């Protein structure tokens, strides 16, 4: 009796484990038929939505393999488990109704790989809630020519994008509002009517090895509106941002900011990088050049450190700092950096309501600027060491 009971338990466990593994479904626009079972490449579904609906009925992480071809559909995904849509270089999902989103996600942990998404209102629109969490992963996905945002993710867990392109969308390329994290690597954001990337009320935003080019607003915008700024961080590395119609990088009320090996150039509208109400900023091995206004503009930011930074050829100042109204600036530390050939000052630091507690410049060059090499008028001490200033339009202060 015990042996029979043991065998029954093992069988039950095996059935549960097998069902939890989910299934693989196949879709083919040329050979598919929605009356097929869709569980083999020989008898695939015709529509992607048919596979999505079939996967939602089964427990466990499911995969949908999509054969090369054009699929004119507006997809809706609501799945309590993980769901992966895997395409190929020739897979294009085009909105059947251009006034609706191409892919709408209301529930689940969804991964999209190797496909293009185009022709809708928004390209991909995950929208979650506390009770219905949504996460989105994109790999080798091109989101282009949608009338609104390429991707708009709202109230989600994590958004991860790698080797993706967000191109020529009528809104922002990738917009995320209220999330735990946004991680973007080896992606391009180009020619969007809005921003390249917007991250709002996101706890952690990380950008690396990206190209952000010719967007008709900020290249990258990170802001907190509801989330406390000390709970939000932003890190960017090994990235080029060029020809933004507003700021190259615009950060508002973000706590911890790290910028490493970044080039911001030819900013058409305003500053190369603008930071307001930051807590801690570290910029290393980065270049800001040929902006319409300042190369770097940081206001009410408590701790600022620049190492091996170049800010040249900007119409405004190479580096502008204001202590305005919200926070004292506790320290400004600039090492091994150059601020030359700018239309106004190389470095301009001023108090307008709060104070700057201390400034240190070490091994800094500020030559051939239209006004002063540096104009620093602050309450705290200013320490200059191995600083070079020649050919500027006005004398330095102090």
Compute the average pLDDT. Answer: 94
Strand content: over 45%
Secondary-structure class: mainly beta
| Largest β sheet strand count, sense and barrel closure | 8 strands, parallel, barrel
Oligomer: single chain
Secondary structure: helix percent: under 10%
Could you give the distance between the termini? 94 Å
Q: Which regions have little confidence, pLDDT < 50, spanning 5+ residues?
A: 1-20
The tally of strands reads 30
Radius of gyration: 26 Å
Which SSEs are present, and which pair or pack?
Layout: H1 2-20, E1 24-27, H2 48-56, E2 62-66, E3 69-72, E4 75-86, E5 91-94, E6 103-118, E7 124-126, E8 134-144, E9 151-162, E10 165-167, E11 174-185, E12 188-190, E13 197-208, E14 211-213, E15 220-223, E16 233-242, E17 249-252, E18 256-265, E19 273-276, E20 280-284, E21 287-289, E22 296-299, E23 303-307, E24 310-312, E25 319-323, E26 331-335, E27 347-351, E28 359-362, E29 374-377, E30 382-385
Parallel strand pairs: 1-2, 2-4, 3-5, 4-6, 5-6, 6-7, 6-8, 8-9, 8-10, 9-11, 10-12, 11-13, 12-14, 13-15, 13-16, 14-16, 15-17, 16-18, 17-19, 18-20, 18-21, 19-22, 20-23, 21-24, 22-25, 23-26, 25-27, 26-28, 27-29, 28-30
Write a brief structural summary.
Helices cover 7% and strands 46% of the residues. It has 398 residues and is mainly beta.
């Amino acid at each position: 009796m015990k042996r029979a009971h043991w065998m029954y338990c093992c069988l039950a466990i095996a059935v549960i484990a097998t069902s939890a593994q989910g299934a693989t479904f196949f879709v083919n626009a040329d050979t598919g038929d929605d009356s097929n079972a869709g569980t083999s490449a020989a008898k695939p579904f015709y529509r992607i939505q048919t596979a999505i609906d079939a996967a939602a009925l089964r427990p466990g992480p499911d995969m949908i393999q999509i054969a090369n071809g054009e699929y004119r559909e507006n997809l809706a995904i609501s799945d309590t488990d993980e769901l992966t849509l895997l395409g190929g270089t020739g897979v294009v999902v085009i909105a059947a109704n251009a006034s609706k989103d191409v892919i709408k996600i209301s529930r689940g942990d969804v991964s999209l790989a190797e496909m293009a998404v185009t022709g809708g209102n928004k390209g991909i629109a995950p929208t979650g809630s506390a009770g219905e969490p949504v996460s989105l992963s994109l790999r080798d996905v091109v989101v282009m020519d949608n009338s609104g945002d390429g991707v708009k993710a709202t109230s989600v867990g994590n958004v991860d994008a790698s080797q993706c392109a967000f191109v020529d969308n009528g809104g922002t390329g990738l917009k995320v509002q209220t999330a735990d994290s946004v991680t973007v690597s080896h992606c391009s954001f180009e020619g969007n009517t809005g921003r390249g990337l917007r991250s709002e009320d996101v706890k952690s935003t990380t950008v690396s090895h990206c190209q952000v080019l010719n967007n008709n607003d900020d290249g990258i915008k990170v802001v907190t509106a509801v989330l406390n700024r000390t709970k939000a961080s932003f890190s960017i590395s090994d990235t080029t941002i060029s020809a933004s119609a507003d700021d190259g990088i615009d950060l508002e009320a973000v706590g911890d900011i790290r910028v490493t090996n970044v080039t911001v150039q030819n900013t058409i509208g305003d500053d190369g990088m603008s930071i307001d109400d930051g807590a801690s900023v570290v910029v290393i091995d980065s270049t800001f050049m040929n902006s319409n206004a300042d190369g770097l503009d940081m206001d009410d930011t408590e701790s600022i450190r620049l190492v091996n930074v170049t800010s040249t050829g900007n119409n405004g100042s190479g580096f502008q700092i204001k202590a305005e109204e919200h926070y004292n600036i506790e320290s400004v530390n600039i090492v091994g950096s150059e601020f030359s050939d700018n239309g106004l000052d190389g470095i301009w630091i001023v108090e307008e309501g709060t104070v700057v507690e201390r400034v240190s410049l070490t091994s800094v060059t500020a030559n051939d600027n239209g006004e002063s090499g540096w104009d620093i008028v602050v309450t705290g001490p200013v320490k200059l060491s191995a600083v070079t200033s020649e050919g500027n339009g006005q004398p330095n202060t102090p």
